[in-house]
């Protein structure tokens, strides 16, 4: 792809491909928009792999008026429609020049009504739909932006477009695209300054999309869902308590717990997770670009995933609250035990919530390294040091002074065995569905089916071409029914 230096644009229309092509990554339509003349642009397209070897080229160029353009589009469409079986096997590429494109897109060249203009655009888009790659040559900067706008408005839901350029002529289409990428090159830095992302070389694009793009979305989606989840668990337990406090303003947790839950006890692990988490290693993501397909249409932040996380939050809150409630009931907790007091009940419930939401984060993690391990251990140590501090030191903060000796009574008093049993049994009961769900996800993951699994010393060799092709065929067959 480094031979595309002379091209002004590499525009990618993100949709699934039925077959993998490294030069086209995961794009359904790959467009090259350039101001070069037709012969130069076609030579570079073939050399760069934009036009694959054996591709049948459809040329709609050098049309002098709207009628010629319309006739040419109709003729090419009719030829393709008359040979549906051959079209199913053959692959096509389209070449359009700037003058012809004006007749198809620019209203000033159409002396007819708006309906005729819409029909003309639809014909052009329909013809593009039969092709794998489109080359537009002799374009002006505004024409490049018009092409991007045309793709964005071509259907519903709207496609996601990515425009890549290296010169000032590419600025309009970089701004118009959903994602604009500018390259630092010999033509200056105008494109890089106008872009959303700037790259030093074009070859960095593959790693930026397939590795960083996938991991960034995976981390961001799970961080958002986890924040909703952990706060849902925390709030629902207080809602359940209101049914037993006659809906008074009394909270089950001390004010120091309310302050420290999000600020100290659950903040650091999710931050490190959002920085270090990787669903798949870099070698897997770069070897199989079609994995990127799985995050299309905001898959991980869908209403379905949001509902699943909320269901787990609801289940955890019920198990934690009523597990403590049962242990604190008559006949279970010994008379005089700390669980019979509001401060003791709230402290144990808070401790269990902290344990479960931390375990939930670990169950959702695929990348275990020193930073993750250190952060989890440090958070647990700091949390229980805070519990020990408020157990021995009187803090003049309203209800916080009531926590004096609470933790000592929980683990050393009459209810010590009950507390220890609760800290082991209740979290295990709560996370059993999470373990099953994680196992089901991994068992239906095509990479795990192939033999790769995080933590194993032996994994699939993705450089082995037969194995790689087998993975691609599995992934394609499993995602044919995916809504995109």
From TrEMBL:
Domain P-type ATPase C-terminal residue range list: 192-439
Keyword Nucleotidyltransferase attached: no
Subcellular location: Membrane
An example Gene Ontology biological process: phospholipid translocation
Transmembrane parts of this sequence: 223-244, 256-276, 306-328, 343-363, 370-395, 407-432
Bilayer disposition of the protein: Multi-pass membrane protein
An example molecular function term from Gene Ontology annotations: metal ion binding
Alphabetized UniProt keyword annotations: Magnesium, Membrane, Metal-binding, Transmembrane, Transmembrane helix
NCBIfam families referenced in this protein's UniProt entry, alphabetically: ATPase_P-type (TIGR01494)
Name of the molecule in the record: PhoLip_ATPase_C domain-containing protein
Upper lineage: Eukaryota, Metazoa, Spiralia, Lophotrochozoa, Platyhelminthes
């Amino acid at each position: 792809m480094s031979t595309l230096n002379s091209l002004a644009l590499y525009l990618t229309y993100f949709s699934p491909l039925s077959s993998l092509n490294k030069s086209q990554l995961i794009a359904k339509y790959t467009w090259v928009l350039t101001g070069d003349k037709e012969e130069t642009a076609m030579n570079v397209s073939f050399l760069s792999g934009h036009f694959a070897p054996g591709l049948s080229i459809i040329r709609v160029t050098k049309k002098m008026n709207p009628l010629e353009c319309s006739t040419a589009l109709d003729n090419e469409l009719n030829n393709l429609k008359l040979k549906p079986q051959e079209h199913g096997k053959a692959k096509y590429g389209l070449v359009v020049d700037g003058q012809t494109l004006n007749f198809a897109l620019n209203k000033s060249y159409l002396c007819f009504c708006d309906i005729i203009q819409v029909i003309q655009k639809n014909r052009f888009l329909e013809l593009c739909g039969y092709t794998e790659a489109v080359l537009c040559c002799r374009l002006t900067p505004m024409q490049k932006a018009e092409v991007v706008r045309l793709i964005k408005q071509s259907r519903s839901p709207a496609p996601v477009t990515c425009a890549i350029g290296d010169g000032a002529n590419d600025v309009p289409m970089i701004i118009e695209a959903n994602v604009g990428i500018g390259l630092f090159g010999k033509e200056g830095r105008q494109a890089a300054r106008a872009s959303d992302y700037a790259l030093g070389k074009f070859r960095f694009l593959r790693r930026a999309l397939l590795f960083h793009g996938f991991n960034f979305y995976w981390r961001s989606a799970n961080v958002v869902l986890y924040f909703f989840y952990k706060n849902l668990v925390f709030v629902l337990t207080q809602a359940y308590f209101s049914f037993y406090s006659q809906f008074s303003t009394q909270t089950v947790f001390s004010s120091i717990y309310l302050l420290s839950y999000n600020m100290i006890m659950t903040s650091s692990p999710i931050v490190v997770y959002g920085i270090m988490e990787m669903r798949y290693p870099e070698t897997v993501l770069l070897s199989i670009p079609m994995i990127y397909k799985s995050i299309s249409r905001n898959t991980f932040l869908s209403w379905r995933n949001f509902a699943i996380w909320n269901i787990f939050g609801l289940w955890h809150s019920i198990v934690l609250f009523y597990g403590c409630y049962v242990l604190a009931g008559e006949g279970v907790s010994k008379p005089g035990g700390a669980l019979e007091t509001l401060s003791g009940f709230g402290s144990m419930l808070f401790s269990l919530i902290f344990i479960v939401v931390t375990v939930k984060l670990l169950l959702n993690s695929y990348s275990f390294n020193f930073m993750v391990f250190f952060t989890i251990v440090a958070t647990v140590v700091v949390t229980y040091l805070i519990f020990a501090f408020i157990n021995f030191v009187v803090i003049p903060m309203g209800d916080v002074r009531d926590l004096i000796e609470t933790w000592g009574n929980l683990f050393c008093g009459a209810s010590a065995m009950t507390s220890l049993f609760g800290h082991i049994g209740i979290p295990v009961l709560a996370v059993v569905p999470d373990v099953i769900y994680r196992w089901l996800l991994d068992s239906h993951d095509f990479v795990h089916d192939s033999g790769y699994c995080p933590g194993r010393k032996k994994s699939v060799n993705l450089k082995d071409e037969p194995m790689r092709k087998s993975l691609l065929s599995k992934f394609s067959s499993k995602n044919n029914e995916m809504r995109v």
